[in-house]
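User: Before I run my own analysis I want an independent prediction to cross-check against. Here's the chain; please return only the structure tokens and, at the end, one sentence I can use as a sanity check.
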Amino acid sequence: MEALGQLLPFLLLFVVFYFFFIRPQSKKQKEQNMFVANLQKGDEVVTMSGIIGRITKIDEQSVQLEIEGKTYLKFLKSTISKEMTDAYVKSSAA
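Assistant: Structure tokens:
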């Protein structure tokens, strides 16, 4: 019984870490992965470095963005940020 009493604080600490850090982070990562998987030509997106552009080409690992006029840049899909894109869409709609 004493061993359980000594382990209880560690178990409670693990539960707190799980619900406040691990679970929300894994949920956020899952949403990011779904966002990247559903990207389509014509979507306006923001990269993690803050570059805003419209998708002109998509392949398995990369996207080509039209930045300004006829300026095109190629990025890995993993650099497209759901969080920053959502914030940009909200601010431009307002």
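Sanity check: The helical segments are 2-37, 82-93.
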